[in-house]
Amino acid sequence: MSAIKVTEIAGHVEFTNVKCSPLDKNFADFEYCYIKAINRSYKYVSLKVNLFKMPVTKVKVNLSLMKRFNGYRPFLYNVTVDACNYLKNPSKNPIAQFLGGLYLPFTNMNHQCPFNHSLILDKLPIDHLNHQFSSVLPFPLGDYAFCTTWIAYDIIRADVKIFFTLS
After folding, report:
1. pTM of the predicted model, to two decimals?
2. Is 13-117+135-166 in CATH node 3.40.50.2000?
3. What's the CA gap between 164 and 29, in Å, rounded?
C-alpha cells in the first residue's frame, strides 16, 4: 500500500511589470530596474538606486497594495512609515513588518539610518512572494500592484511599483 500526500493548493505569483520612477534626479536616480526570467518558473526583480546627497538620515516610505478592479484600486494596506524608526524596531508596526517583509530580506537596507550608499533590491524571487501571499497571509486571486513612494526630508524622491498576478 502506498501513501498519498495531499498538499494544499496555493496561489502562484507571476511578475508582470516593474516601474521605477525617480522624481528628483538631483537626489537619486535608478541605475537599473528590471524583471529577469531565468526560466519559465524562476523570475526575479532587481533594482539599484544611486543616492547623490548622502548621508540620508530622514526617510519615510508609503507602502500600498493595490488590486485591479477597472484600474488599480487600494486593497487592504496603505501606510506611511518612518523608515528610520521602523528599522530600529520592526515589530512595533505589524502591517509595515508584513509589507517590508515582501522585499527587505533582499535589500541592503538591513540597518538603521543613515544611508550612505546606493540602495539595492537584489533578486527578489517569485517563490518568496508565493510564500508571503499564500502561507503568511493568504490573498484572493487577481492582479496586484505593490507600490512604494520614497520620501526623504519630507520631499517625495522616487516611486517603485511591482506588478504581479496571483493565480
Report:
1. 0.88
2. no
3. 24
